[in-house]
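User: Sequence recovery, please. Input:
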C-alpha cells in the first residue's frame, strides 16, 4: 500500500491478486468522501499454473468511479502500474482490435 497526497487530499494505492477474478488488481482510492476511485484489472494468463502471468495489455480492464482524480495523481498511478512489469504487449498470434471495422470506419 502507498499513500500519496495532493493538496490536503490523501490517495491510497493498493495492489493485490484477486482470486475470484483470477487477476492482479491496482486500486487508487481517495481517503475522503469527495475523492474518486480507479481500478486497473490485469487478467492472469495462467491462473492455475503457478505464479502470476499477465495477459496482453489489450485484455486489461479499467474501472472508473464517478468522482474526479487530479491529473498528477492519475499519472503517478499509471506510472506505478507501467513500472510494475505487469503490462505486456500482445503476442503476434493473439488477435486484437484496432478500433477500426472492416469497412474502414472508426
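Assistant: Recovered sequence (106 residues):
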Amino acid at each position: 500500500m502507498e499513500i500519496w497526497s495532493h493538496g490536503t487530499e490523501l490517495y491510497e494505492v493498493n495492489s493485490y491478486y484477486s482470486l475470484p477474478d483470477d487477476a492482479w488488481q491496482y486500486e487508487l482510492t481517495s481517503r475522503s468522501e469527495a475523492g474518486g476511485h480507479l481500478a486497473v484489472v490485469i487478467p492472469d494468463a495462467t491462473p492455475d499454473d503457478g505464479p502470476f502471468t499477465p495477459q496482453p495489455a489489450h485484455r486489461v480492464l479499467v474501472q472508473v468511479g464517478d468522482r474526479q482524480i487530479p491529473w498528477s495523481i492519475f499519472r503517478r498511478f499509471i506510472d506505478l502500474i507501467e513500472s510494475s512489469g505487469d503490462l505486456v504487449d500482445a503476442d503476434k498470434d493473439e488477435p486484437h482490435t484496432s478500433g477500426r471495422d472492416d469497412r474502414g470506419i472508426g
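The chain has a mean pLDDT of 82.
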